[in-house]
Design a protein that fits this description.
Elements: H1 2-30, H2 34-66, E1 80-83, E2 86-89, H3 113-116, H4 118-130, E3 142-145, H5 152-159, E4 168-170, H6 176-185, E5 196-201, H7 204-217, H8 233-243, H9 258-266, E6 274-277, H10 281-292, E7 306-314, H11 316-325, H12 327-331, E8 342-349
Parallel strand pairs: 3-4, 3-5, 5-6
Antiparallel strand pairs: 1-2, 7-8
Helix pairs in contact: 8-11
């Protein structure tokens, strides 16, 4: 009996505690909680962003599927402009929410369209048949390897969402393994029609000034000079020389030379089918379109708008480091070395990506 009374008394105390304490907690959770509401708002924003990105991917996938029907293929309906190549269309860019027209770190997923969208293989086979079974550029799918700071975003915007996209895959900042995989996946005609690899390189001195100014501006940059106390162009190069182990590997350097990037993407010597140069991009693009049998077009405007010009000083110390870090740009790619100090006037703000 005594044990029963004790149990009843304890149960009563627990009930009182529940109504007085836990009950208050429940009531408070139903009221306004700014911190929780702010968290919920962020969750909703992220959910909305993910949904928007998913909708964009589905729209692009559906657009590519639609290309299986000739009447739905995008037309070259851009505004035409007079140029040294005649009155031809100016391609329009179709940037994503981040300002770029294509993702840059897709690895093996970059060439998913070659497997997912029948229009890609159908177009290759159709063009091959139209040229009496001939392969080459007139029918092949194209893989573009984007080396950082060479202006590749312009080519990405010229091809994404434009008529050429059914024949063109933007590999982004890629690797040899990803390229080899995509060469295999984008080969059609029962193995007789492999894709063509397109690359673009930039004058090493312009490349390094652009790489430095981009890291200094710290806009869209993965690594910024201010984070590691770099205050000058020479200091930037000395940091890379000290932290990196180039040309063998990147070591602990967050920035790579152009020659290292190219070797990572296409080997040494680089295996490619068509080469463009940043400095003659439009002219080289015209030659590529002629090679592919596609209409001649002008590249999109203002992919990376600039806000002015600045002088970058190439002292003897700067040149010595560049000639070591990027030796292969002069050896394999044929750029001419400059041994005397000079100033290079380059665009500031958003540099070519």
């Amino acid at each position: 009996m005594r044990a029963a009374l004790v149990l009843l008394r304890v149960s009563g105390l627990i009930g009182v505690a529940w109504s007085a304490g836990l009950g208050d907690v429940t009531d408070n959770s139903l009221g306004e909680n700014p911190e929780r509401n702010a968290g919920n708002s962020r969750v909703e924003e992220r959910r909305a962003e993910r949904q928007k990105a998913a909708d964009q991917r589905e729209a692009e996938k559906q657009r590519m599927k639609d290309m299986m029907h000739p009447e739905l293929v995008p037309k070259w309906d851009a505004n035409k402009e007079d140029s040294e190549w005649g009155n031809i269309p100016r391609l329009q860019s179709h940037p994503m929410s981040d300002g770029f027209c294509s993702e840059h770190f897709m690895h093996n997923n970059a060439c998913q369209k070659c497997n997912d969208w029948a229009a890609v293989g159908q177009r290759v086979n159709q063009l091959a048949n139209a040229s009496n079974g001939g392969g080459g550029f007139k029918s092949a799918h194209v893989l573009y390897l984007h080396a950082q700071k060479t202006g590749g975003s312009t080519l990405e915007c010229a091809t994404e969402g434009n008529p050429l996209s059914v024949r063109w895959t933007n590999m982004g900042h890629t690797s040899r393994d990803a390229v080899d995989s995509c060469i295999e996946r984008c080969t059609f005609g029962e193995g007789t029609l492999p894709p063509k690899v397109v690359v673009m390189v930039r004058d090493p001195y312009s490349f390094w000034s652009s790489r430095y100014l981009f890291a200094k501006a710290c806009y869209h940059a993965a690594s910024c000079t201010a984070w590691v106390g770099i205050t000058s162009f020479l200091g930037f190069l000395q940091y890379i020389e000290k932290k990196g182990n180039f040309p063998n590997d990147r070591g602990k350097s967050p920035w790579e030379p152009q020659s290292f990037i190219m070797e990572e993407q296409c080997g040494k010597p680089c295996k490619y089918d068509h080469l463009l140069h940043t400095e003659t991009m439009q002219e080289d693009w015209i030659k590529l379109m002629e090679k592919m049998g596609e209409p001649l077009t002008l590249l999109p405007h203002d992919i990376n708008p600039t806000v002015g010009k600045v002088n970058v000083e190439f002292t003897k110390d700067v040149l010595d480091i560049i000639h070591v870090l990027d030796a292969n740009m002069f050896e394999e790619w044929g750029f001419k070395k400059r041994d005397e100090s000079f100033n290079l006037r380059v665009s500031s703000g958003a540099q070519p990506h």
